[in-house]
Structures are given as C-alpha cells and as structure tokens.
Specification:
With 203 residues, the protein is an alpha/beta fold. The protein has helices at 14-23, 49-64, 98-109, 174-180, 182-198; strands at residues 6-9, 30-33, 67-77, 84-85, 116-127, 133-144, 160-162. It has a single domain, classed as Maf protein (Alpha-Beta Complex). 31% of the residues lie in helices and 24% in strands.
Length: 203
C-alpha cells in the first residue's frame, strides 16, 4: 500500500492544530505536526500576518524537507482601529490564557459604543522544501459581544458573534465552523493550490 504524502502543519497551538487537521482531512495527505517530527524551533512573530505565516511554513519545510503549511490569524476590531490584529495571541502579555486575552479585550472595548464590529482574518502559507511560498487569505466578519457564550473553539471564539448568525463562533458545531470560519475559508482557497503543487487528485 502506497504511503500518503506528508504535509507538516506548522503550529504548536493545540486548538489550531485540531482545526487544521479537521479542515485538511479531505486533502489526501498524511498530516504531521512539529511535535510529531521532534522540531522544537519557535518562530518569533512580527506585526504582519503574511510574513508570519510564510516564516512558520518555510521554517518547517526547510527543517523537514517536506511541504508545510502555516498560518497567522487575528481578530480585528473596528473600535480599536483594527487591533489586536497580528498581536491577538499576545494581547494580555506572554504566557497568558485565552480567558485572560478575552477579558483584556472586553476591558479595552468597555468604554466604546456598541456594536463592536470586527472580523477574524487568517493568512495561510504553503511552503515547499525548495523555498516557494503561496499565500491565501480567509476573512469571517461579525462583532464582539460583552459576554462569553459557548464552549467550543478557542481563543476569542466565545465573544465573537458570526455575521448573519445568532451564535458565537464557540456555539457553532464543528461542521458549521469548518464552513464559516476565517481559517476554513483560507483552507478552501488553498486546497486547489495545494493539490496542484503536490500533484494530488481532487476528490
């Protein structure tokens, strides 16, 4: 039996890794994580989604000799002039929890009039072992609400109400989130490129 080609998912965020593996399950690839491969490198993140995503994917591809996928995502709130954006994972400081970041965000927004319109943005990079990089973007609009709802997802999901829905991202089923989320939309845009670059047959 022929072994499936491998694709490295360049993240150590457990929630993101779980989502990526679910979204890419139809790709016809064997997905492996940095931990699966014993890679301990940490990529210092900067202020730009595309650069961060490309650096993560390129570092993993270079270290393993395999194709790799990386992403950088953030929550952009209009009342905060697009913040926290690429700094979303570090909003409350280093080594803080998702709950800490949500509380910090809501404290920043408390003086601002509602609705707190916002969007999740995901830039995803596919990197080859020889250094080629493809980039795509997925966006999910909505608004931040002042109370947490739902137990699914991670990050800011419990305080993000999806546009056109009555549910927060954390209240959606996995199947719904895998259609509507910013990361899902980025994967949908990337799949045709991934199949073409890696010589895969579409299902």
């Amino acid at each position: 039996m022929t072994e499936l080609p491998k694709l490295v998912v360049a993240t150590r965020n457990i929630g993101k890794l779980r989502e990526m593996c679910s979204l890419l399950a139809i790709s016809g690839l064997r997905l492996v994580s940095l931990d699966d491969l014993g890679i301990a490198d940490e990529i210092e993140e900067g202020p730009d989604y595309a650069e961060n995503a490309a650096r993560k994917a390129s570092a993993a591809a270079s270290a393993t000799g395999l194709w790799a996928i990386g992403d950088d995502s953030g929550l952009e709130v209009d009342a905060l002039e697009g913040a926290p954006g690429p700094h979303s994972a570090r909003l409350a400081g280093p080594r803080r929890t998702d709950a800490d970041r949500r509380q910090t965000l809501l404290a920043m927004l408390a003086p601002q009039p509602r609705p707190w319109t916002a969007r999740f943005r995901c830039t995803m990079a596919l990197a080859s072992p020889d250094g080629k990089v493809d980039l795509v973007v997925g966006v999910c609009p909505g608004q931040v609400i002042p109370e947490e709802r739902g137990s699914g997802g991670f990050g800011y999901d419990p305080v993000f109400l999806v546009e056109g829905r009555m549910e927060t991202m954390a209240e959606l089923s996995e199947a719904e989130k895998n259609l509507l989320s910013h990361r899902a939309r980025a994967v949908q845009a990337l799949l045709p490129i991934l199949r073409r670059r890696m010589g895969l047959t579409a299902p």
